[in-house]
């Protein structure tokens, strides 16, 4: 229901197919008075653009967002902010040869069954192209968070079996290290290994999965709501709506299954800046409400469904067939890389919404 | 926002504190004509009741639900169904000694900060007591699913490092095997090991975490909505709103990070009953929409926060203190066990809602 | 959708049929820290109770609300407030004789067509009995408004062709005058005429319609949201959801059709207390947002559908029949009288919600 | 909340200011398979365009809608439909001289107070320009209704004290008669009088109010939901969100206040085509649910706030001032005329949403 909208007070609605004229997003509920300009958005968009380096898809989108409403004299007015991003590099003709095939790992089968019609040019609405709109909206949410002193970040924590080590990295420097790495991994050594893995994977016509970690710092106590709108529940909802995600965890996550209570419980103590906990297995939430500790969690991404190898499948009519990507198709060996700014955007949107809702809780 | 409600068309609202007079749930949007009686609900409630066997908390609630509205001559009328469950075994006096302490792993700190007031009798609204209402509502959702031929189930997949093996178990017999096991694990061998682990953990005054797997069978193609209301996103939202959860995954989950595309992609083929896939790494969803394959996923639970060991903490005033559960406190060494029917309930609620929304998608 | 809920942040969900065991309401989103007790609610309920004087229905309900959750040590905690009102004086047997007849002016035909089933005991869910829950919830919203200095009131402005004159009545004394009148009309002379009209109408087995005027004073500038959530749109939504309503107007209302712009425009001037307008044809809203002037509007109620005269109708099977109320049926000759506290309640709910939402609009 | 969205399943979100680059609407939840093209929308837009005849504002917009997404091969796909309408004839410079004045009858005062900033070019977001987006979306809703056999219409029922008589007009010919009249009144005689009134009003630099009546035919029984989402409540919400509206009524409306029950009750009888009522004071709804009789109601519009006469006012700084429209300003003497297609659009949106929701009510 209203499946193309996200959020309660700070609410977005996205639209557009991967190979249509344009895509866009309407942001409703952004507080008035926030300084915004197109470059804030375009800088964020640049980070998720394919083709920016050899480690992601060669489709070069060079997205330029246009703000059509809701900003006056450089500031938000409280009116809906409409952002439009033209689809410049869309060549739908190459999808003609595969339009009658069920694409392994893709959504055209389920869309066809659900709607009786599918815009087969690219992934249509199911394409990762839609996520550019999340990034554009997330850039505005992030400005609102920064105005409130909150910092957000995300990075590749794992690719295949390569795991980034961050124990010695200062939290405040993670974000800049991340975007210096072509594979968005702030651990230099792991970053090199991942680059090699991407190259090997690409050469084999294959793809590989990965895990993104996200962190929010300086989040005040009290964000998130009890029972069904717990902060981690809303984060899970947000992250599992990103294409290609298969898992979400907060704090200790799945590791908690093997822990004991005395190890897992984070003990309270007092710092100059207030109440803290000695460990952070909770990941910054207690009872669904932020505790003031860093919000930290992870999102698992499957290997890209589009690979350069032939795969057995069916036609939409039910006959056996071989699915092969058209010659010259773009191919993104690890979809998790480009998803880093998307995870950051979704994190920003959830926190901005929770920050506004918190204003309504007390007399 | 409206944080005590869940669902869109098939919508529930729960209320009540663990040590108040009663708890309850209002179900709005259940289709008319469904046969319902109190025993349907009470049977489900019996499964999550603590005290039913030595492996869960000795508080014996003996919940009896009363249906106060929405059912006439044994059938739902389309009006809201109000269910009330009295709190019989509530002794709030024992919470007096700890009312001024921050409880490690619990939510009283964050509630106090957010609301400026906390009902310290039991966990108040943050108590697992609230989940009885989810189970009551889930029992009705489950009847609606059964009417549509859909089966749902959940069980302990892992406790500590003990993992259940289910490769040789027929999917249709899992549910009955589950509820024959005192620890809700359908693998007899693992069940025995888990029982021993629970006893050992209890003897040590400790607690242990676990993982619940959930499955839905015979789900038609087309449930779930694109972009922000993907079926897996709504499942994640539902599951991560259950107390003590730390992670969610669907299909291959976090394992997908180490897989390649050619291994992960589920290839389409045709069976007598229609289109299927040779593997099910997707977990029954493609592009956020059910594919007709079994919906399968997992939820991670942290070890119970309440343990019988003393722990350092702070008073609500900020002074150092020792937190110790009052003598004779109930103690549930593995909260995941009782969460099995809760996971089943949330799965039912998500699917019932998606089944109704699907009716609106085509001309 | 979620048709038994009202509001966004300050949100209520009601349940219960007129002749079931009980009715009730869950209030979710009331800010924490508000002092509440059952007598606040019972005093409000007393005002709408039938049988309180000979001018309304003789069914004497003597409603006593029980607060089951959400209040601790006399204050709201931010948790959902569940209120239950038992149905004491419910005798469903008398509805047996008319259960297979379409009741003129009533909803049993449309409910039967929509749901395929109808709880024919009283009006089931369509009964005015449901409005007791609105009044209970409204009493809490009203306390929140009073905490913020806002005053609300409603009264009979017109019954049949008798129109109350209020030009010489001080706004602040209207509410107490209203509830001194058995027909809830603050104009003593009109009140007497209305009492006579009610008696005559009752003697004839007839019913009569009426118009309720509502006023809110000391409403700050800025409540209500542009475009689709204008304050007057939400008020209209609230009022037209009350049973038996046929019309809503704000400020000049339908009279505005015959006015010219120079007469209708309210001109701004400055008072000690700030910007005001010389007239208030707008009714306290400009562009859907409160202007600081009194919010004033009216709601039209049809004559009670239940009359003591025989009426031609159909059976549910489609045969011609005569509908007659069972001997000894309760009969409320002017439903608008009892609706006064209901209009006051809905006004309070809309303003409380708008007051909270306003907190989210600026940086 | 989400104040720029309307609807539940068939949901729209509008954006754009009167003098920005463009305005637009995103329609989410339109069922797949509906045939749509830009001319459907442009024909509807042409009806509300100012400047189409001398009786409305001379600003000639010549709106051309562009469909940017959600339609593939001429049919809706179930994806969000994004429609963009460029602002061609926008000259914001003329608003400079009045930017620091509170405009009588306008919203700039309340916007400034609420948001701290106001896009003073035209009415910004508060401008009637926004309603073009409602008309565009309504055109799609109307196609969906037509697919289901439902007809909708609206027309000027009253202007000043001139009242259209429609007793002898066939319901099916009303719509074509309406749009043949320059003042959208299907009664030829009243239409002439209204044209004279508009000319006189314009010559005097004045404006005049009006009443629009709306009708929906062949609406099946069962649309609308009990209690808070009654069909008339949602219609009232929809209509009172249109700029310049002051009142709403359904069926007998405010007249019902002076009627008796035996006159007001609509008696059931049986026709070949099913159950009907002998009169239709209810306006096609019983208990908030459509009864199969024509849906009929009225909306009151105040006289246009912009008049050509000088008016006393304040500056935004609080000083006394005279407000005068800039020379050459466009001036629409009766805003109700152009609102006819807007009322039709809102009626269509409410019914389309209710028609979809009805699918979820029964097993």
Describe this structure in words.
Four copies of one chain form a homotetramer. Chain A is 26% helix and 21% strand. Chain A has 363 residues and is α+β, with helices and mostly antiparallel strands. In chain A, helix 6 (231-239) runs antiparallel to helix 8. Chain A has a single domain (5-360), classed as Chorismate synthase, AroC fold, CATH 3.60.150. In chain A, strands 1-2-3-7-4 form a five-stranded antiparallel beta sheet, with helices on one face. Chain A has helices at residues 38-48, 108-115, 131-147, 174-180, 188-203, 231-239, 261-264, 335-357, and strands spanning 5-6, 11-15, 22-28, 66-67, 71-72, 75-76, 81-86, 151-159, 162-163, 210-217, 245-250, 268-271, 274-277, 285-286, 289-290, 295-301, 311-314, 320-323. Chains B and C meet through strand 2, strand 3, strand 7 and helix 2 of B and strand 2, strand 3, strand 7 and helix 2 of C.
Write the layout of secondary structure elements.
The structure is a homotetramer of 363-residue chains.
Chain A: E1 5-6, E2 11-15, E3 22-28, H1 38-48, E4 66-67, E5 71-72, E6 75-76, E7 81-86, H2 108-115, H3 131-147, E8 151-159, E9 162-163, H4 174-180, H5 188-203, E10 210-217, H6 231-239, E11 245-250, H7 261-264, E12 268-271, E13 274-277, E14 285-286, E15 289-290, E16 295-301, E17 311-314, E18 320-323, H8 335-357
Antiparallel strand pairs in A: 1-2, 2-3, 3-7, 4-7, 5-6, 8-9, 8-10, 10-16, 11-16, 12-13, 14-15, 17-18
Helix pairs in contact in A: 1-3, 1-8, 3-8, 6-8
């Amino acid at each position: 229901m209203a499946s193309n909208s996200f959020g309660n007070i700070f609410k977005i609605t996205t639209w557009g197919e991967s190979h249509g004229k344009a895509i866009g997003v309407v942001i409703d509920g952004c507080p008035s008075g926030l300084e915004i300009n197109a470059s804030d958005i375009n800088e964020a968009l640049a980070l998720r653009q394919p083709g920016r380096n050899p480690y992601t898809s060669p489709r070069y989108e060079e997205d330029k967002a246009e703000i059509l409403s809701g900003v006056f004299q450089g500031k938000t007015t409280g009116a809906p902010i409409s952002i439009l991003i033209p689809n410049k590099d869309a060549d739908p003709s190459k999808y003609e040869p595969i339009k009658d095939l069920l694409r392994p790992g893709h959504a055209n089968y389920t869309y066809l069954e659900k709607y009786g019609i599918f815009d087969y040019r690219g992934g249509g609405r199911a394409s990762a192209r839609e996520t550019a709109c999340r990034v554009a909206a997330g850039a505005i949410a992030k400005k609102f968070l920064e105005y409130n002193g909150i910092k957000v970040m995300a990075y590749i924590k794992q690719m295949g079996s390569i795991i980034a080590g961050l124990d010695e990295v200062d939290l405040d420097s993670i974000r800049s290290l991340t975007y210096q790495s072509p594979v968005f991994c702030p651990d230099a050594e792991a970053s090199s290994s991942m680059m090699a893995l991407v190259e090997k994977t690409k050469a084999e016509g294959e793809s590989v999965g990965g895990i993104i970690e996200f962190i929010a710092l300086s989040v005040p106590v009290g964000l998130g709501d009890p029972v069904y709108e717990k902060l981690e529940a809303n984060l899970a909802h947000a992250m599992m709506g990103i294409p290609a995600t298969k898992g979400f965890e907060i704090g200790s996550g799945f590791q908690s299954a093997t822990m004991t209570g005395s190890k897992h419980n984070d003990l309270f103590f007092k710092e100059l800046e207030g109440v803290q906990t000695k460990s952070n297995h909770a990941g910054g939430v207690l009872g669904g409400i932020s505790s003031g500790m860093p919000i930290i969690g992870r999102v698992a991404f499957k290997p890209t469904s589009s690979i350069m190898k032939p795969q057995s499948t069916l036609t939409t009519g039910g006959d056996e067939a071989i699915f092969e990507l058209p010659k010259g198709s773009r191919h993104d060996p690890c979809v998790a890389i480009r998803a880093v700014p998307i995870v950051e955007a979704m994190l920003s949107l959830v926190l901005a919404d929770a920050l506004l809702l918190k204003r309504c809780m007390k007399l």
